[in-house]
Amino acid sequence: MSYPNIENRKYMATGFSSPTTVISDTPEKSKDIRTVEGYDKHIEDKKHTDVISVLLVDDHMLMREGLRQLFSLEQDIRVIGEAVDGVEALQKIRQLRPDVVLMDIHMPGVDGITVTQQVVQEFPEIAVIILSMQQQNQQVLQAVKSGARGYLLKTASVHEVAEAIRTVRAGSVFVAPEMTDMIVKEYRRLSEG
Predict the structure, then answer these.
(1) Which residue of 1, 40, 105, 125 is surrounded by the most CB atoms within 10 Å?
(2) How far apart (Å, rounded) are the C-alpha atoms in residues 175 and 134?
(3) Integer-rounded Cα radius of gyration of the chain
(4) Distance, CA of 149 to chain centre
(5) Which domains are delineated in the chain?
(6) Per-residue CA distances from 10 to 13, 18, 54, 89 (Å)
(7) What is the mean pLDDT, run by run of 10 residues, along the chain of 193 residues?
(8) What pLDDT is recorded for position 186?
(9) What pLDDT, in 10s, does the model give residues 159-191?
(10) pTM of the entire structure?
(11) DSSP-assigned beta bridge partners for residue 128
């Protein structure tokens, strides 16, 4: 496939030639989303696609690159952008409007919980999955309270992460299987106390 309208190669993977223009392989199909009509059409088009757009947010390049490579093998998941911290994540979310954000819980500056709360307030249609190295009760509960629709450990398999993305995009919640029992016990404890 050729990209005659793309002038800057770094945007090829995202499908954007600039922060606000959606690109197609023919000039007449390109649309400017800087206008209200263009933006509404862009959002409507996203609703009718089977491809799930994902933003990767992690301060570790190896994690982002690994996920990007692995998702390139999935036909229905497309990484449209990456961010290294919470501030950049909010900028990219506002700019790209992904379907799902895969977010590290611990990042420099603004953490994943705080960013998730902001995303849920501004864009309730965007699903956030929190990624963590730790299986701490309090952290999981904070993620759920913040509005995250998913919580995964970084030890999860690629299959499990892809399943989580599809699940939250469909409107459901996905929690790492090894954490489900802990969440139920913690909620029981809180409701009894």
Answers:
(1) 105
(2) 13
(3) 17
(4) 11
(5) 1-48 (no CATH), 49-192 (3.40.50.2300)
(6) 7, 10, 17, 18
(7) 35 34 38 47 55 97 95 96 96 98 92 95 97 81 90 92 97 88 79 80
(8) 76
(9) 999 999 999 999 999 998 888 887 788 778 878
(10) 0.72
(11) 101
